[in-house]
Every structure is written in C-alpha cells, then in structure tokens.
Specification:
Length: 344
C-alpha cells in the first residue's frame, strides 16, 4: 500500500511565513554563489539541495490517503483533504449526463452532447476519523467529491452520531457555510467503528482508543502482510483517564509495524509545560516505537509554532537519541512531510 501525507500540521493551518521563504531563498543563493551552477542545469542543481532549502514541511492540518490499487482509505479531514479531493475528482470525474444535457440545451447549443458518457463513474471512499477536533474536520466542507452524485462515502469513527453532528454543525447554512451537509450530493453513511475491526477490500483495519481530551482513535491498517499504524492526538500522563493502560496497549498495538505515524507535537521540554493538552513528544514515542520493533517511524501533527528548521532539528535530536538506545534494533525516523508518499 501507498500512504500519502496530505496534511501534517496539528491544531491550525500554518502556511510558510514570507520571512521563512526569504530566509530559505537566501540560504539557497549562498550555496549557488559557492557552487556556481550552470544556468542551463538549474533543475539538477535544485534537486541536489536539501529539502529544507527548496521545499517545505507543509502547513495543512491532518489528512492521509492510503491506497492499494483502486481501493482508497482517507484518514481525517483536516485542510489537507481539499487538495486530495481535487485530485480524486481529476482522476475519476466523468460528466454528469443529466447536468450536461441541461447545460447543452439551455446554454451551449453548439456542443455535441453525444460524445459525453451517459454513465456517471462511482467513486467509493472510506473515511476513518480519529476524532472531531476542528483541525481534523475543517477541510471536510471543501472536499470536492462531496458534491458529486457518483461518490459513495462511508465514514467510520468512535461515535458515528457525534461525528455526523460535528460535520453538519460546521457546515450549517448560512451562518457557517453556504451549503448544508444534507445538500451534498454524495451518498454519505456514518458508522461506529466495530470493536472487532473491519475488512474492506484488501485492507484489514483495527482501532484503539487513545487518551486525549474528548478521546481519539488510533488505526492499524494491514495490507498484503504489511502494517501501518496511525496514532495522533494522544498523551500518556496521569491526568488523562486510563493513561497507563493505554501506553502499554499502544506499545502492543504498534508491535512490528512497518510504518508508525505518530503525534509528536511538543518537544520533551515543552510537553512538561503543556501537560494535559493531549499531545506527545518525539523522544518518548520514539523509545516506545524502537522497543516495539517498528521499522519506520514518522513524526506527525507538527506544532504550528515550530518552523521547518526547528522540526528538522527535532528530527535530528530524535535520531541521535534512538541511536544511543538502539542496541540490536534499527529504526528509520523521518518527518511526515506534506505531499510525500511512503510505500509500506
Ligand atoms: Zn489535532
Ligand atoms: Zn485533538
């Protein structure tokens, strides 16, 4: 399966600031002055520079796509789901015959209607919701496939009724959004995630509740013998109910995962001042992942106040820390970066 990061930021969308772009440009120019690249080979020069100079970690809030062939699972509907929706429409949209006929008959008399398909293609999607804090749902009204009659969307989460209410509330017309959720043309169904797990197409999906204000759900997806676990918005401290049991449960849940993507919002020091805020820190999670035999660990739910440089610094410190601990184990560590695809 392929996992693609469409949104990796926690809490609030965080576009790069004008100043951070200027600083990056300045650093790249300094390298160029030193290396004097051939102007006709600028693309290969840019490709040779580290990502931190020519790219960005990304500012959209959580959304992941998990794909195996034509089967697609989406996890969370943060602002990253907007670009995913546009891509899905480009891939799958075929003109709606009835609407086209109306347009042709009323406005565009010179179009040859017969060349359009009479059948609308169906787009079947699964959306797994970790929870409904705003950063995980705020992209949903802008998810273009909602407005296609051919979309069949099954939403799963801890409490289907509550998820439906939260999505409908943020989309209530006219004060919060101009189109009500009930006006969306997709066939949307909401389901409580079954405690025994789900088998959907090539995917086996299991869940685990996490300690977070209001609760959150971790998901484990197994496909063709490979395992990926996504756990965001959780904190193991005494103030969160059931915290100690959950820590041991999560360590078991991620055991031998090929890929583990986890909330690591706060540095270890900052996490001490933000106890009870519901988020984790990279060193602690990395240690748990290492002992659980995880092969690749991704830092996720980046803090909106941490710029790219700070996040790369956190990555290096986490790698250095696990190198000290690793013994016979080995575990690759990376940042979740918007637009990146990971083969699991
Ligand atoms: Zn969040
Ligand atoms: Zn949350």
């Amino acid at each position: 399966m392929i996992v693609k990061f469409w949104g990796v930021r926690g809490s609030i969308p965080t576009p790069p600031t004008p100043n951070s772009l200027k600083e990056r440009l300045k650093a790249a120019i300094l390298v160029a002055l030193e290396r004097k690249p051939d102007p006709s080979k600028l693309n290969s020069f840019l490709d040779s520079l580290p990502d931190r100079l020519v790219s960005t970690i990304g500012g959209n809030t959580p959304c992941l796509e998990v794909r195996e062939g034509n089967d697609i699972i989406i996890i969370d509907a943060g602002t990253g789901i907007n670009a995913l929706g546009r891509q899905l429409n480009d891939e799958s949209f075929e003109p709606d015959a009835e609407r086209l006929r109306y347009l042709v008959e009323t406005r565009y008399h010179d179009i040859d209607f017969s060349r359009f398909s009479e059948t609308e293609k169906t787009l079947r999607l699964i959306l797994l919701m970790t929870h409904t804090h705003w950063d995980h749902i705020q992209g949903f009204p802008f998810f273009a496939p909602l407005y296609n009659r051919g979309t069949v969307l099954d939403v799963y989460g801890q409490d289907a009724k509550q998820i439906q209410e939260a999505l409908a509330l943020q989309q209530s017309d006219p004060k919060l959004f101009p189109v009500n959720l009930v006006q969306a043309e997709a066939k949307i169904s909401f389901h409580d995630f079954p405690p025994a797990g789900l088998t959907l197409g090539p995917f086996r999906i299991e869940s685990m509740p996490l300690p977070h204000p209001g609760g959150s759900l971790a998901f484990k997806i197994t496909c063709k013998g490979k395992i990926m676990v996504f756990a965001t918005d959780y904190e193991f401290v005494g103030t969160q109910p059931g915290s100690e049991d959950s820590e041991a449960d999560l360590a078991r849940f991620i055991r031998m995962a090929d890929v583990f993507i986890s909330d690591t919002q706060y540095t270890f020091l900052e996490s001490m001042t933000k106890e009870g805020w519901g988020h984790s820190s990279p060193l602690k999670v990395a240690e748990m992942a290492l002992h659980a035999g995880v092969k690749k660990f991704f830092l996720f739910h980046h803090d909106p106040f941490y710029g790219d440089e700070k996040l790369y610094d956190i990555l290096e410190r986490t790698q250095a820390y696990t190198n000290l601990l690793r013994g016979d184990h080995s575990m690759a560590i990376d940042l979740a970066i918007e637009g990146r695809e990971v083969e699991v």
